[in-house]
Write a structure and sequence with these properties.
Layout (H helix, E strand, L loop, with lengths): L4 E2 L2 E2 L3 E2 L5 E3 L7 E7 L10 H7 L22 E3 L5 E3 L5 E3 L6 E2 L2 E2 L5 E7 L8 H17 L8 E3 H4 L13 H9 L1
Parallel strand pairs: 3-7, 5-11, 5-12, 6-11
Antiparallel strand pairs: 1-2, 4-8, 6-7, 9-10
Helix pairs in contact: 2-4
């Protein structure tokens, strides 16, 4: 079954809308950025990522959350360890995931990128379910947004070197990109 997008929303994803987005300046989608996230670091399956992206994270819930107070951040998608896909922002809108960033000399990657977060860390292997869902989601995005291509898929570390390290050494780029070619 092919997945369906309506107004940038994937019908098959759990929708968890974030207030942290705005309009794309040129309505262009031409870059896909892979990230990782876990809250607290290395802990999975908890509600804190949804809360962070929705702007309602209780920073008292864990000592490591203190630095996240008043942070306004979002991504388009999260793929949890069990393969669940959550969508926070329409792909037609600008999510706030890349921060200070540059791709091929072009600044502000949020303007033209879709951000996919994988529930994980730089060091721990991602799950089979995550790779399967990432492959499926990427294939659908490549169909939906013709300016996207495998050559325009990067890690957060590629567009914010020295500042970001995700998706990390644990992400199998060969497996992911090789799967898209087949």
């Amino acid at each position: 079954m092919q997945w369906q997008f309506t107004s940038g929303w994937l019908k098959q994803a759990r929708r968890c809308e974030s207030p942290h987005f705005n309009a794309r300046p040129e309505a262009e989608v031409s870059l896909l950025v892979i990230h990782n996230i876990s809250l607290p670091a290395g802990c999975f399956g908890l509600p804190y990522i949804d809360a962070l992206f929705q702007g309602c994270l209780d920073v008292q819930a864990d000592a490591s959350f203190a630095c996240l107070a008043d942070l306004q951040v979002s991504a388009h998608f999260l793929i949890r360890r069990d393969g669940e896909i959550v969508q926070y922002v329409s792909c037609d809108d600008r999510a706030w995931h890349a921060g200070l960033s540059s791709f091929q000399g072009r600044e502000n990657c949020n303007d033209f990128a879709i951000g996919i977060e994988l529930e994980g860390t730089d060091e721990l292997a991602y799950t089979e379910q995550q790779y399967l869902q990432l492959d499926r989601l990427t294939r659908q995005l490549l169909q939906e947004y013709p300016l996207l291509s495998p050559e325009r898929i990067v890690g957060h570390s590629d567009i914010a070197p020295g500042r970001k390290t995700d998706p990390g050494a644990s992400f199998d780029w060969h497996r992911y990109l090789g799967g898209l070619a087949g």
